[in-house]
Amino acid sequence: MGNCHTVGPNEALVVSGGCCGSDEKTYVVGGWAWAWWLISDIQRITLEIMTLQPKCEDVETAEGVAITVTGVAQVKVMTENELLGYACEQFLGKSVVEIKSVILQTLEGHLRAILGTLTVEQIYQDRDKFATLVREVAAPDVGRMGIEILSFTIKDVYDKVEYLSSLGKTQTAAVQRDADIGVAEAERDAGIREAECKKEMMDVKFLADTKMADSKRELEMQKASFNQEVNTKKAEAQLAYELQAAKEQQKIRLEEIEIEVVQRKKQITIEEKEIDRTDKELIATVKRPAEAEAYKMQQLAEGQKIKKVLTAQAEAEKIRCIGEAEAASIEAVGKAEAEKMRLKAESYQQYGEAAKTALVLEALPKIASKVAAPLSKTNEIVILSGEGSRVTGEVTRLLAELPVSVNALTGVDLTKIPLLQKMTSPQCQTAN
């Protein structure tokens, strides 16, 4: 029995040993492989890029100057079967750190060897050439280990005796000197050339000025001639223009007058229509409402007048009717009273003295109640008098006046009744 093993594109799978005891190795990159239990051996090796930083300190160059060089290299395991086999032989079972250490030592060894064959100037001035040389020299050796150098660059070059600084200063001074000499020579040549150019320029300028003067004179003469013709033509054109402008202005004025006449006629028509409209508006807003108001006031006045006349007539009729009714009522009452009195008189004539007396006596309690009505609300009457005979005299006086009052009210003379005569006689009063 066995297992299926897979691997990504950044690793290589190495399967060694088979079912028949074979030592053949199988390399798988980014795929899968079958391995037998207890027989096949499974190992992996990285295919990722490894970054190295080789550094050679105080290495003497061809001139004996000690310098320090640092670089950066990108390397990886090659994936061809044969080269991958070389890499597996060298690094299978090792960690990435151990692989990087072996390759770094190889690169630093070649770097030291190449530094000893070059001068400082060659190394410093052409770093790319130096890096290419290192890569070309080291590539076969690391290639036999199944390693490919993807890139190699020089990072820094420096020394402890300031040789590179002095070299830079010397080179800078030489460059500055050559530059100053070049500037001086250039200025000299420029001055000479400038003077020659100025002379040629002045010659050409004088010749050109002469030609320009001749041309200018001829030009001025031509211009004067042309100006004369132009002015003549301009004067003629101006006169023609002014004449035509006057004619056109006259036409425009005539047109404006006609327009003003038309506008005036339209204005008069509009004003007449406005007057008519104003008259109609006044008639509609002032005259008609005024006439309506006047008619209304007239009708109201007529109505008030008729109302007052009818009211007066009705009041007069009312008063007349009331008067007639009151007169008829008074007449009927008078007639009724007269008839009553007549009947009473006839009745009284038929009655004897005894009957009259009985009637009077029947009426006396009623008279007494009416007379005593105000006194009914009086709890007691106190007569203040120091003499006893004074009270008796007052009572006698009241009784004496009673027949007169009855006679005035009823027409019956109580003094003629025998019983009352006895009651009111002086003898009875004295006896009492």
Automatic annotation (TrEMBL):
<comment type="similarity">
    <text>Belongs to the band 7/mec-2 family. Flotillin subfamily.</text>
</comment>
<feature type="domain" description="Band 7">
    <location>
        <begin position="87"/>
        <end position="269"/>
    </location>
</feature>
<dbReference type="GO" id="GO:0016600">
    <property type="term" value="C:flotillin complex"/>
</dbReference>
<dbReference type="InterPro" id="IPR027705">
    <property type="entry name" value="Flotillin_fam"/>
</dbReference>
<dbReference type="GO" id="GO:0002020">
    <property type="term" value="F:protease binding"/>
</dbReference>
<keyword id="KW-0175">Coiled coil</keyword>
<keyword id="KW-0967">Endosome</keyword>
<dbReference type="GO" id="GO:0005768">
    <property type="term" value="C:endosome"/>
</dbReference>
<comment type="subunit">
    <text>Heterooligomeric complex.</text>
</comment>
<dbReference type="InterPro" id="IPR001107">
    <property type="entry name" value="Band_7"/>
</dbReference>
<keyword id="KW-0472">Membrane</keyword>
<dbReference type="Pfam" id="PF01145">
    <property type="entry name" value="Band_7"/>
</dbReference>
<dbReference type="GO" id="GO:0072659">
    <property type="term" value="P:protein localization to plasma membrane"/>
</dbReference>
<protein>
    <recommendedName>
        <fullName>Flotillin</fullName>
    </recommendedName>
</protein>
<dbReference type="GO" id="GO:0045661">
    <property type="term" value="P:regulation of myoblast differentiation"/>
</dbReference>
<feature type="coiled-coil region">
    <location>
        <begin position="216"/>
        <end position="274"/>
    </location>
</feature>
<dbReference type="InterPro" id="IPR036013">
    <property type="entry name" value="Band_7/SPFH_dom_sf"/>
</dbReference>
